[in-house]
Amino acid sequence: MSDATQARVAVASFAVELRDVGKRFGPVVALDGVDLAIRKGEFFSLLGPSGCGKTTTLNLIGGFETASRGTLLIDGQPMGDTPSHARPVNTVFQSYALFPHMSVADNVGFGLRMRKVPRPERRRAVEEMLRLVSLEGFEDRRPSQLSGGQRQRVALARALVNHPAVLLLDEPFGALDARVRQELRRWLRRLHDEVHVTSVFVTHDQEEALEVADRVVVMNHGRVEQIGTPADVYDHPATPFVFEFLGHVNRLPTSDGGEAFTRPHEFRVERVPAAAAWPARFVHGTAIGPIARLEFALEPSARTVNVELPRDDYRGLALRAGDIAYLTPTRRHAFGS
């Protein structure tokens, strides 16, 4: 196989590629040399705080923005200035973007009607999509007659009915309450596994990204901090930013004057002194379900340390405010600080 053929095969295995992509809005650098390769059929999450560049990345893929530099390919084809309506993608927004005057069935079938798909074929496709998103029997309802979660499932059905090469999801559950968000993200993962569409999911919610994605890219200030599986980025963070962004973190002093990082669940707590343990004064604790969350103040610095233990372990310690306990990290993450 020639080098050129090998290159074409490699490109063809990716649904989306960004090569050294940059984007400026006047003096503001939104993206600075981003490289991404999203595999076909993958559930890929763009994760980071507000202003990190994740939504700009999604907008570039969708054709709502144009890159200032670099190359964007979808299914191996350079997009360049290809307008959004000519790209093999569909987008689901946080705001649903449903037509309020149309029925559920008409909303789902809108794209097919614009493509002049015959009515019988359109009806069958809409029925199949509504079955897929568990909304059979809702065909004649208006969006105002649906819950927020149901409206978002209609928006997903409308996007999927066109069989896009890439499904773009822009914080799709951001307007929903926590319980519904949790239910829908699990449902979305099951839906993805059934339809196998390449999905690019933007969120600032760490738990959401880690629960649903095959791989996650953590972004900060327009740059890629780390790409990997949820387990990779959580257990083996590449940078202090990734470590601190993905959950609560304790900063602990090291013997050389630097700092090491430890997550709250990475401690052993004892009532008697132990080798390499820090003495700490117990401040308070709260048991929520099976987990207890404890706060200590290191001796003598009074630096706050947060610890998570199984509830039964916490109760067995019988700690009262002001008691001295001994904290031993079971794991430390050092980044040269």
Write a brief caption for the model.
The chain is α+β, with helices and mostly antiparallel strands and 337 residues long.
Q: What share of residues are in beta strands?
A: 25-35%
Total number of beta strands: 17
* Total of DSSP H or I helical runs spanning 4+ residues: 11
Mean pLDDT figure: 90
Principal-axes shape call: globular
Helix content: 25-40%
**Mind describing the biggest β-sheet?**
6 strands, mixed
In the predicted model, the low-confidence regions spanning at least 5 consecutive residues are: 5-10
With strands numbered from the N-terminus, the spatial order across the biggest sheet is: 6-7-8-3-9-10
Structural category is: alpha+beta
Oligomer: single chain
What distance separates the N and C termini?
47 Å
Order of H and E elements: HEEEHEEEHHHHEHEHEEHHEEEEEEHE
Using only CA atoms, what is the Rg? 24 Å
What does this protein structure show overall?
The chain has eleven helices and 17 strands. It is α+β, with helices and mostly antiparallel strands. The strands form four sheets. It has a six-stranded mixed sheet, sandwiched between helices. Strands 13-17-14-15-16 form a five-stranded antiparallel sheet. The two termini are 47 Å apart. Mean pLDDT is 90; it is low at 5-10.
